[in-house]
Amino acid sequence: MKTLKDVISLKFKTSESEGVIFHGEGQQGDYITLELKKAKLVLNLNLGSNQLGSIYGHTSVMTGSLLDDHHWHSILIERHGRNINLTLDRHMQHFRTNGEFDYLDLDYEITFGGMPFSGKPSSNSRKNFKGCMESINYNGNNITDLAKRKKLEPSNVGNLSFSCVEPHTVPVFFNATSYLEVPGRPSQDLFSVSFLFRTWNPNGLLVFSNFADDLGNVEIDINEGKVSVHINVTQVKKNRIDIAS
């Protein structure tokens, strides 16, 4: 496939912060990869480089954040030569690719949801996408519909289901005055707590617990946008431990 123009669109939702959304590459070093990295969207594109190193085509653009929130996000990539419009949730970013070439020269397959191991440098230890996609459209082809009707030949479908499983988690909303108190375990010598949270507030108390027998307490809070853990122990000389992240 050698194209001067490309239009690629899809919607996705995931709770994972890493994963390849789609990938295609060619024998001459061209490639296009759209992936999630640290819950941000990264588009890597190369319309060709030369062996002398005077033409370097690799281009990487990052957009968005916190895209692992299990909400639907829409992507539109419009390419005309070296001019690219990358739209994420109606926010458009325009850029030009590096190098001097206008055509994207790919092999005969493009993969969605992962990257097959090809032995080429581009296929190094990237995670497959885990989540849901819909309305996949590649240069006028409705990929989702064609895949469901088994009209993509040849195609390799690995463990794919045409449904979207919702997570079995129940979120809890706290306003500025609400709290949740649960019973402690006085006979346990291990304190363990884990949770996911999201907030726009830079300050707030997340967890507080007193230790039994007046041995101290533990407090987890947000302070100026950073999570801090404070452990107070009454029985030892160095009686306070503070960890911030």
UniProtKB/TrEMBL annotation:
InterPro entries: ConA-like_dom_sf, Laminin_G, Neurexin-related_CASP. It comes from the Eukaryota. Coiled coil: none annotated. Residues 1-164 form the Laminin G domain. SMART domains: LamG. Pfam families: Laminin_G_2. This is CNTP2 protein. It comes from Oxyruncus cristatus.
